[in-house]
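Quick one: C2 domain-containing protein from Allacma fusca, structure tokens please.
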Amino acid sequence: SHNPYWGENFVFNILPTGGEILFEVFDRIG
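--- reply ---
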């Protein structure tokens, strides 16, 4: 589950693939 304050919707619109990977990393980091 991704945190809403990362603005996943904004990033996903720009990086649908890269953004998803980054969020997986960010979610695990904290």
